[in-house]
Design brief:
501 residues, 17 helices, single chain, membrane, EmrB-like, transmembrane helix, Growth Hormone, Chain: A
Length: 501
């Protein structure tokens, strides 16, 4: 099989199932580890700034490797790439589970990330070439259902494991599953790739690594080091200059590592902008809610994980339904309705108080995730639908890279907003106190200032989502440039152009 699957025959469900299981456990591993960071800090005797590198390092490796996946998918077979990716992930998981010092654990996480970075673009490319446009929404919906179970069960499962075992059990739990999936892939995946005469440009790899890696590191470090730190703004400047050079170089190569011609297709460009804006708002929200629940309301980590569980389950089960609706009605109506819901619920989260109840938070988060289920997958699928087949690897690589970058930028920006507003509120509240404040008064001022900062951060997130909502009004149903749909009064006369809803 040369990855140009025939839409007239049955899609390769066996290959897709194995790839989905591999992608699922890599997603699950991420959500499991977030809850374990305090335990790792205590056990390995590292501070918050150091332990955050388990997340930042993972993102850096993803940001460096994901742009190369377009080349890898074109060059190698699905079987070879899967076995390499799953093998690296398994090795990293085994090492992490036996780590006794932090540098070994960090190195193991980066090995894990090198495998995970290949997995998602590979799976999405197989999905795109396996299903025709008319059935692609349903297929991507099922794909979303399976992958959304990871964030659904991850925090709760992690909380349970940490209550009964040490943090290393999180990796020991994943290890046998990863090994079994690798063995299944070795036995069942039989596809072959015809020899392709393309070569990876070393200068492009270097520029991409410095560019995307610099941006991710700079924005990820801004929350802890501050925007005035030379390690933040110099890294971002170097990253931007490297990316500009990288883009210019790609336009001059016959076989670019990452083909920026995908942005000649208006629906793909629009989808990229919308998903980046939504990511910037939502990634930060996923951090703010647990901080509020545990710090302001005093909820335990286990209970905070359970609070987020209904929303994740709603998002997961809505995914295949949204896929069917996308096939029938297109992406615009779904995205507009979904973003209206996300806007309303995010605005409600900007009015949190000390009296906000646990079940109110659970309800608002569930409704927010219900709205989100109608946004991300339909918009992304609609954008990819306009690309010709030869650009699928580049489109999926571009989307995954931008998701990493926008998530890092959004999180850094929103957390910075929260921190600066929190400092301002604390200064104002302290000035209102007559005389020397007591320890109890200081604690109340600190919590009230943090609450104000969190509310302001959610308010800024609301404006991001309103911008995405305005852009979503311009979405049109996309058809691939290479396809010739049946003539209809509603179709544009321009080949490959988008069809209005």
């Amino acid at each position: 099989m040369n990855q140009e699957f025939n839409h007239e025959v049955r899609p390769p469900y066996g290959i897709i199932a194995i790839l989905m299981i591999g992608a699922f456990i890599s997603f699950l591993n991420n959500t499991l580890l977030n809850v374990a960071l305090p335990s790792i800090m205590a056990n390995l005797q590292v501070d918050t700034a150091t332990v955050q590198w388990l997340t930042t390092g993972y993102m850096l490796v993803n940001g460096i490797l994901i742009p190369t996946t377009a080349f890898l998918i074109q060059k190698f077979s699905v079987r070879r790439l899967f076995l390499i990716a799953m093998g690296l992930f398994s090795i990293g998981t085994i090492i992490a589970g036996t780590a006794t010092i932090f540098p070994v654990l960090l190195g193991a996480r980066m090995v894990q990330a090198s495998g995970s970075a290949i997995m998602m673009p590979l799976l999405m490319n197989v999905m795109l070439v396996s299903f025709p446009v008319a059935k692609r929404g349903t297929a991507m919906g099922v794909f979303g259902l399976i992958l959304m179970f990871a964030p659904a069960i991850g925090p709760t499962l992690s909380g349970w494991i940490l209550e009964h075992y040490e943090w290393r059990m999180l990796f020991h739990f994943i290890t046998p599953i990863a090994i079994v999936v690798w063995i299944l892939g070795f036995i069942l995946l039989k596809d072959k790739k015809e020899k392709v005469d393309i070569h990876l440009d070393a200068i492009s790899v270097l520029l991409s690594s410095i560019g995307f890696g610099g941006l991710l590191y700079g924005f990820s470090s801004a929350g802890s080091n501050g925007w005035n730190s030379p390690s933040v703004y110099m890294t971002i400047i170097i990253g931007v200059l490297s990316l500009i050079t990288f883009i210019v170089r790609q336009s001059k190569l016959n076989d670019p590592m990452l083909n920026f011609n995908v942005y000649r297709y208006p629906m793909f460009s629009l989808a990229s902008v919308i998903t980046m804006v939504v990511n910037m708002a939502l990634f930060s929200g996923f951090m703010l809610l647990p901080i509020y629940a545990q710090t302001i309301l005093g909820i335990s980590p286990m209970k905070a994980g359970l609070m987020l569980l209904p929303g994740a389950i709603v998002n997961a089960f809505m995914s295949p339904i949204t896929g069917r609706l996308f096939d029938k009605y297109g992406g615009r109506i779904l995205a507009v309705i979904g973003l209206i819901i996300v806007t309303g619920t995010t605005f409600q989260l900007s009015h949190l108080s000390f009296e906000t109840t646990y079940y109110y938070l659970m309800f608002i988060h569930a409704v927010r995730m219900f709205g989100l289920s109608m946004v991300m997958m339909p918009i992304t699928t609609n954008g990819l639908n306009q690309l010709p087949k030869q650009l699928y690897p580049h489109g999926t690589a571009m989307n995954n890279t931008l998701n990493q970058v926008s998530g890092a930028i959004g999180t850094a920006f929103i957390i910075t907003i929260m921190s600066t507003r929190e400092a301002m509120y604390e200064k104002q509240l302290t000035a209102q106190v007559i005389g020397q404040p007591t320890a109890e008064a200081k604690q109340h001022i600190t919590l009230e200032a943090m609450l104000g900062g969190i509310n302001d951060a959610f308010l800024i997130s609301t404006f991001f989502i309103i911008l995405a909502l305005a852009l979503a009004l311009f979405i049109k149903r996309a058809t691939p440039m290479g396809d010739k749909p049946k003539k209809s009064k509603n179709l544009s006369k321009v080949p490959g152009n988008s069809r209005a809803l």
